[in-house]
Amino acid sequence: MARLEKDPNVKNRPFLERLEFALSGISAAWRSEASFRTQIIVMIGVLLALLWLRPAAIWWAMTVLAIGAVLAAELFNTALEHVIDHLHPEHAAKIKIAKDCAAGAVLVLCVAAIALFLILLMQT
Ligand SMILES: Nc1ncnc2c1ncn2[C@@H]1O[C@H](COP(=O)(O)OP(=O)(O)OP(=O)(O)O)[C@@H](O)[C@H]1O
């Protein structure tokens, strides 16, 4: 297996190339994860609702943070799944706990984001 930390062709590339790696990760998650696609579509709906409701700037800031947190957690969850499936494709009780916890982290942030949106609706 290639050791990436010693490979000058992979580590510490220029900013634009690292940006391309990051966008490629987002694109891979979009293609492989139905939940990531659902979250993005829901988030677009939430942003359209904000455009219509025109709440105070603080609500925009909190909503954008909540959206970013949910999508970032889903990307971490997807990253973890890929690493685990590559390193240990077999069924294992510990892997179930690891994957369930990662999915639980996404769920916690989704519930918090939904709660934030409901509070916003009650305030406007
Ligand atoms: N190798 C494994 N060993 C034990 N349980 C596993 C394993 N792979 C998956 N599971 C179980 O199946 C669930 C779903 O698996 P996985 O996370 O790979 O699929 P997913 O549909 O992409 O999930 P998510 O909606 O969280 O992205 C896990 O949360 C875990 O409970």
TrEMBL record:
Entry's transmembrane regions: 34-52, 58-80, 101-122
InterPro entries (UniProt xref): DAGK (IPR000829), DAGK_sf (IPR036945)
Keyword Calcium attributed: no
Source superkingdom: Bacteria
Pfam families found in the cross-reference section: DAGK_prokar
Cellular location(s): Cell membrane
Membrane topology: Multi-pass membrane protein
Principal EC category: transferase
Gene Ontology molecular function: any one: ATP-dependent diacylglycerol kinase activity
Similarity remark: Belongs to the bacterial diacylglycerol kinase family.
Protein name: Diacylglycerol kinase
UniProt source species: Crenobacter oryzisoli
